[in-house]
Amino acid sequence: MEYIIIYTMIFLFGITIGSFLNVCIYRIPKKEDIVSERSHCMSCGNVLKWYELIPLFSFLMQGGKCRNCKVKLSLQYPMIELLNGLVYIWIFVVKGFTAESILFCICASVLIVISVIDWRTYEIPFGCNVIIGILGIIRLILDLAHWYDYVIGFFAVSGLFMIAYWITKGNGIGGGDIKLMAVAGLLLGWKEILLALGIGSVAGSIIHLTLMKLKNKDRVLAFGPYLALGIFTAMLYGDKIIDWYLKICGL
After folding, report:
1. Helix (H, G, I), strand (E, B) or coil at 222
2. pTM metric for this prediction
3. Which among 7, 12, 19 has a CA at the least distance from the CA of 80?
4. Residue 90 burial (10 A CB sphere; 0-12, 13-18, 19+)
5. What is the tens place of the pLDDT at every residue in 41-85?
6. Which of 87, 115, 74, 118 lies closest to 18, judged by CA?
7. In which element (H, E) is residue 21 found?
8. pLDDT confidence bin for 141, thresholds 50/70/90
């Protein structure tokens, strides 16, 4: 019963943060204020009341429509809220009730924002990378005895991306991807960030080629969502995957 209460609280906190993530996803690409400007309907501009802002429940109670203009609301709202709540529970189940789990929850939320925005605009907001970088510095301080793992992680993948950027004159990789893998490497360490790159590259190749074939998706790849998937996987299961791989190789 005690754990049920704790995880319920984590979920409720997660969906509340998820509501804010929706604000970021919609407003950041438009250069709008994400803090002081009041929430409003994207169609009629009606300022929302507090009872219209309850994560998940308001959407369900209103039948997925704006209370004022009756325009159908995007499913993104409840999906992002639900996803963030479930991800928070997932992280605490895997990593336990530690400071690391808190850092990873924040990082996961930022990765959600990065994934959706990059998928739509092919740009990764600089501010999102700054937040992950701050998380990386905090983790380095908490694990100061292994500071070199995080410092090497900062350059391990971002250095490779930078070389690719120079060779292709910016056509092969984006600056946002370089910054993302630098700050994520600072958070995870060099082993996990290399794993994240591998997972992201494989996922990106398979999914994007499939989309190109089935839905005539453009050849230009938004790499951010796939890198985010790799980072999230390495964040939670990196040590286990690496240990498993080393055992197979007899190392």
Report:
1. coil
2. 0.93
3. 19
4. middle
5. 777 777 777 777 889 988 888 888 887 788 888 899 999 999 999
6. 87
7. helix 2-27
8. very high
